[in-house]
Recover the amino acids of this structure.
């Protein structure tokens, strides 16, 4: 028997990969073995350990903590995992499963796995037909445009209101990360979780008015 990890976000499967290394580092920075690219994940967030057929996880003093089946675990201490357990790191869910040993593709054995680049990990990224941007409509930055070239872009004054804009395979999605002031899209309060953006959507965040636009890629 062997173990595999099923990685999901917002109920969408992003990746399935075997757990074969003695240590698997999880975090936002590029040196990790499993890269989870979003602001709520610490640069060095957690580590999975595989020894004598037993899997344990350790929170590496992350900012937002690590959860097993919804329960926050203490940092710098290894916690045992069983088949079917779900680990929460930011908005990602990492499920541990036991399976029959089999031959995995070279792609699955890659030493570093970047998650949230594409919705379907088995597909190659399609040619991008449109790129998103945010244009500021008021204040001292009125007219300024930010092209959304990264997988995740955060916008807003810390402590007042911060949103993330995530580029997935099919579209761009917005999520409210922090701040007590409500975020609205076209005058409607932004719901919890991620919301798909449409070109022309107007966003209001902590006194900042902006519009999301999709523009065809030149060439």
């Amino acid at each position: 028997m062997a173990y595999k990890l099923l990685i999901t976000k917002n109920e969408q499967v992003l990746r399935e990969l075997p757990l074969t290394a003695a240590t698997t580092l999880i975090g936002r920075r590029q040196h990790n073995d499993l890269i989870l690219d979003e602001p709520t994940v610490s640069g060095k967030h957690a580590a999975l350990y595989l020894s004598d057929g037993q899997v344990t996880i350790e929170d590496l003093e992350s900012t937002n903590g690590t959860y097993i089946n919804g329960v926050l675990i203490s940092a710098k201490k290894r916690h045992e995992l069983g088949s079917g357990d779900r680990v929460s790191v930011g908005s990602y869910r990492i499920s541990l499963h036991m399976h029959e040993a089999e031959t995995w593709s070279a792609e699955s054995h890659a030493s570093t796995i970047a998650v949230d680049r594409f919705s379907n990990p088995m597909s190659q990224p399609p040619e991008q037909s449109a790129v998103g941007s945010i244009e500021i409509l008021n204040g001292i930055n009125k007219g300024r445009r930010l092209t959304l070239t990264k997988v995740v872009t955060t916008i807003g004054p810390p402590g007042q209101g911060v949103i993330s804009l995530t580029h997935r395979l099919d579209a761009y999605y917005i999520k409210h990360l922090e701040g007590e002031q409500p975020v609205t899209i076209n005058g409607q309060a932004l719901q919890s979780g991620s919301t798909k953006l449409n070109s022309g959507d107007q966003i209001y965040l902590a006194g900042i008015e902006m519009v999301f636009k999709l523009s065809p890629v030149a060439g």
Notes: The chain has two domains: 2-99, 131-215. The CA atoms of residues 40 and 64 lie 7 Å apart. The two ends are 50 Å apart (CA to CA). The chain has a mean pLDDT of 81.
